[in-house]
Specification:
heterodimer; B: four-stranded antiparallel β-sheet; 11 strands; cell inner membrane (chain A); transmembrane helix (chain A)
Chain lengths: 437, 261
């Protein structure tokens, strides 16, 4: 009964008109922009696959790609909120270096002296320490921007120099290594991936979550007699979601541990090595899981909380947000604190992956992060942007890098291509927006 | 009438504010009773909008008193003003262009679910209800406000002001962006809100917008109050004289800005 009411509701925004493609798009309520980006990504992948002689679309490369993207994509989710409010954060790369350095000293030199090497609490204490540092640094920059009214560009440009210098100063330029055994798992590698079984379990959980979410939003719409998506559209959405999850896990599980490591592991655990070598799946890498979790949480924060709503309202019209009674300054500080926390997570992943903290770590990351957000559809004039878009943007950037490495392109050429692609992508986006208006 | 008996809803007394040496509002006093419409008139730059922004918390006064229900009120920002039931519809409409109508209606006061997350569905349902009352033709709930026409944006701004049981409503040039039909709708709405006991400040530089709706008019010139009058005691021409020359007619109570003869 309710279903019928909903469909006959005269306020239905989903007018079923036009070509089958338009009908499909409006029924599924998919974002055309996002689909365009996924299409571009697919083109890049297929293009590189052929240009590199079949090296790109392999489990090994895709697995590595996922790990390489993790750090930048985590920071890009925060950069979206920063840019949406018409600010910018140029300091994330240097902040990453500084936080990674202090976390390195903490876990490699301070905590082992107190707790003993390899103590299981070291990685947690280090991570908490990093998060607090990130929040403090971000908060401090946020306060200067929001309350002292120094433009974000200048504050974070200053921060870029300050934190890079501080990272150097902290250990007089010395590289800190090796890092804590458990902390290192955050960086991926054979040990830092969850393996075959857990990957499938997680895939199951993700599929259930997708189904529950679709059902829940359907029920919510029915509660207020809003128009529903047609059932076939829901089915397609669910199938797409399941497909992405299952496909990713298939790929990640198809990438085995390197032979030597697998043999060592087999010997240590008394497993007989079969003919043709032992096949131990990597499964999903821990940094990738962290990035996915960050993406989900940040999407939730951006779309389902008051804070997120205020961020977008401030980006659309700062004066209106202020007049609506939003404490815009405090929201700005919170955005930069959040950005700092995300930088700390990214710093953990980057340093764990390298198994060292160096003072050059994160150099130029700010530009990759901003580029990822912008390629992902975040408008520099404020008010527009999505978390998913930024993460796909990060994947596009990383795919370009990795593809050119596989092709054996010289590194000066790589920078040139990335730079041109960035400008081209934003130009395309401008065209799209002008047409959409 | 009974204005001597009841306490005024709002009293602004001897309010002054200066911007870089320019006294935008200079010793202005004005009051408003429940169920009353007061038209605040004056040229562009006379200080009307500035005075009213002090009441709505957008500006902080340099000196003077604000009393609500006879009690001293502390209004330092828009949040404070809203806590007193003061709602404002700004000349610029002050809507966030990039979010939809429901998000704008509830901006700063979002409905949340038991878990503390945004209850978009409930907000949209409520928005449909309120907008249905104001502007039954309004259908575009899912689109960002920037896609709406001037009149539709105006209805969003008005709906936002009346959604939270305002007691004092400030409308700054409410019909500036509207066609004749929508202007008449706003007029009906003002009468309806007035009958509910809401006090309304109507701000305009155009006397025709205001004269028929207002119970009293208050005219400002160069940041000072020229005079206040019941609309039944003065003619439109006399009010025009107040606006243009600062000449206070016999039916009005002169203020500090009245021309000295």
């Amino acid at each position: 009964m309710a279903e019928e009411n909903a469909i006959s509701n005269s306020n239905s925004p989903t007018l079923v008109v036009g070509t089958p493609i338009r009908r499909f798009m409006s029924a599924t309520e998919l974002d055309t922009r996002l689909l365009g980006m996924v299409g571009a990504l697919a083109l890049i992948w297929i293009g590189f696959h052929f240009l590199s002689g079949g090296l790109f679309l392999t489990p090994r490369n895709l697995w590595n790609l996922s790990v390489q993207t993790a750090s930048v994509s985590i920071m890009a989710t925060g950069m979206v909120l920063v840019i949406v409010t018409r600010n910018i954060d140029l300091s994330v790369g240097s902040m990453l270096g500084f936080i990674a350095m202090l976390m390195g000293v903490m876990q490699a030199e301070i905590l082992p002296g107190m707790l003993g090497f390899g103590h299981p609490a070291i990685w947690m204490l280090t991570l908490a320490y990093g998060l607090i540092l990130g929040i403090l640094i971000g908060g401090m920059q946020g306060v200067i921007i929001a309350y002292l009214k120094v433009p974000a560009f200048i504050v974070t440009l200053g921060g870029m120099l300050v934190w890079r210098g501080a990272a150097w100063w902290a250990t007089s330029g010395r590289t800190v290594a090796p890092l804590d055994v458990n902390f290192r798992l955050l960086g991926g590698g054979p040990g830092g991936a969850v393996g075959y079984t857990i990957s499938w379990l997680l895939a199951g959980v993700a599929c259930i979550a997708i189904a529950v979410y679709l059902l829940y939003s359907r029920r919510q719409r029915r509660r207020f007699n809003f128009p529903q998506r047609p059932v076939w559209a829901e089915a397609i959405l669910a199938a797409l979601g399941f497909g992405v999850v299952i496909g990713a896990v298939l790929v990640f599980n198809a990438y085995p541990w390197p032979v030597r490591i697998a043999e060592t592991y087999a010997q240590a655990n008394g497993i007989p090595v079969p003919e043709g070598g032992l096949f131990i799946s990597h499964g999903i890498a821990i940094p990738v899981l962290v990035a996915i979790a960050v993406g989900v949480i940040m999407t939730f924060v951006a779309t389902r909380t008051r804070f997120g709503r205020y961020v977008f309202a401030m980006g659309g019209n700062p004066e209106a947000a202020e007049l609506a009674g939003i404490n815009t300054r405090w929201v700005t500080v919170k955005i930069f604190m959040l950005m700092g926390a995300l930088v700390a997570i990214a710093a953990s992943i980057s340093s764990a992956r390298l198994n060292a903290s160096t003072n050059a770590m994160g150099t130029l990351d700010e530009l990759f992060v901003i580029a990822a957000a912008v390629i992902g559809g975040t408008s520099l004039s404020g008010g527009v942007g999505t978390i998913v878009g930024a993460m796909i943007g990060a994947l596009v950037m990383q795919s370009l890098q990795s593809g050119m490495v596989l092709m054996g392109l010289d590194s000066p050429l790589q920078s040139i291509v990335v730079g041109i692609v960035l400008v081209f992508a934003v130009w395309l986006d401008t065209l799209y927006r002008n047409r959409a208006q | 009438m009974n204005q001597q008996i009841t306490t005024p809803l709002v009293e602004l007394e001897d309010i002054s504010i200066a911007f870089g040496g320019i006294r935008a509002v200079d010793g202005a006093s004005i009051d408003l009773y429940p169920g009353e419409v007061v038209g605040l008139l004056g040229h562009n730059g006379a200080g009307k909008s500035t005075l009213i922004k002090i009441l709505s918390g957008a500006y902080k006064r340099d000196s003077g008193e604000i009393r609500i229900d006879g009690q001293d009120a502390t209004i330092n920002n828009p949040r404070d003003a809203k806590a007193y039931g003061i709602e404002t519809i700004y000349q610029t409409l002050a809507v966030a262009d990039n979010v939809d109508a429901a998000a704008n209606l509830f901006l700063g006061r979002e409905l949340t679910t038991a878990l503390g997350t945004l209850d978009d569905v409930a907000m949209e349902a409520k928005a449909r209800e309120v907008m249905g009352r104001l502007n039954p033709n309004f259908r575009r709930f899912k689109e960002p406000v920037k896609a709406l026409s001037g009149g539709q944006r105006q209805s969003v701004a008005i709906a936002r002001a009346i959604l939270f049981n305002a007691r004092i409503l400030i409308m700054d040039e409410p019909t500036a962006a509207l066609g004749p039909q929508e202007t008449a709708q706003v007029g009906d709405l003002i009468k309806q809100l007035k009958s509910e006991g809401i006090g309304i400040f109507l701000i305009s530089h155009d006397i025709h917008d205001v004269f028929d709706l207002a119970d009293r008019v208050c005219v400002m010139k160069n940041g000072q109050v020229v005079g206040t009058a019941k609309t039944s005691d003065v003619t439109k021409d006399e009010v025009l004289g107040m606006i243009i020359m600062g000449k206070c007619p016999p039916g009005a109570t002169p203020g500090p800005g009245a021309m000295r003869i």
